[in-house]
Design a protein that fits this description.
Mean pLDDT: 88
CATH topology of the largest domain: Tetracycline Repressor, domain 2
Number of strands: 0
Strand content: under 5%
Shape: elongated
Structural class: mainly alpha
Number of domains: 2
CATH class of the largest domain: Mainly Alpha
Helix content: 55-70%
Order of helices and strands: HHHHHHHHHHH
Low-confidence stretches: 4-17
CATH superfamily of the largest domain: Tetracycline Repressor, domain 2
Distance between the termini: 48 Å
CATH architecture of the largest domain: Orthogonal Bundle
Largest sheet: none
Length: 210
């Protein structure tokens, strides 16, 4: 869903809905804008979408999950992107995978939770729902770095590298979402944010080996 305009009108002309999850996410956004996050219930979202409460829980565990429908769909491809990545080192492979993942994200699917959070009164709920996702992604990156570097599980250097790379990528996503009419391609934003971090980590790795 585009974060630049109202929930229903933010779609590209002629773009079909992917599933009932889209309908529910749109309904949630409309209600959050109309009456605020705290006053909106799952039952109201389901009613607005024209489905049952049970149908809502077929797609989302909580109303906070509606924030991240599109980014969750993109992040689901992280494992495949990592396995298909190439690079001179594990860090470079992570860098490449994150940029490719950003390139695969539909350009018109801007998370409204990042652009209209104040209007919706999301507050700490936005932070906590984002944190859950970042922790999961960080674990995936750490595991990949350990495996490809032949390091033991939970290796401190892998933990630090995963955290640094993820922080850069996440910052790029927020910058991209909030840029409005000046928004660049997401993969360009992510690539520029990751480059100095990956350079530093790669340089530190060479120094340690030397």
């Amino acid at each position: 869903m585009s974060g630049d305009v109202g929930p229903r009108t933010g779609r590209s002309s002629g773009r079909p809905r992917r599933s009932s999850a889209d309908v529910l996410a749109d309904a949630a956004a409309e209600l959050f804008l109309e009456q605020g996050w705290s006053r909106t219930t799952v039952d109201q979202i389901a009613q607005r979408a024209g489905v049952s409460r049970g149908t809502f829980f077929n797609y989302f565990e909580s109303k906070a999950d509606t924030f991240w429908l599109d980014l969750d769909a993109t992040a689901a491809g992280l494992g495949d992107a990592l396995r298909a990545s190439s690079g001179a080192s594990p860090v470079r492979r992570v860098e490449s995978a994150l940029v490719q993942l950003a390139a695969a994200h539909p350009a018109d699917r801007v998370p409204w939770a990042l652009t209209q959070s104040d209007a919706m009164g999301l507050g700490d709920d936005l932070v906590s729902s984002a944190a859950v996702r970042l922790v999961r992604i960080r674990a995936t990156l750490t595991s990949f770095l350990c495996e490809t570097a032949g390091a033991p599980r939970g290796d401190a250097r892998a933990e630090v590298a995963a955290s640094a790379l993820l922080a850069a990528a996440a910052t790029a996503v927020v910058t991209w979402a909030r840029a409005g009419v000046h928004r660049r391609a997401l993969d360009q934003e992510v690539a520029e944010a990751l480059a100095p971090v990956a350079d530093g980590l790669a340089g530190a790795g060479r120094a340690a080996e030397g």
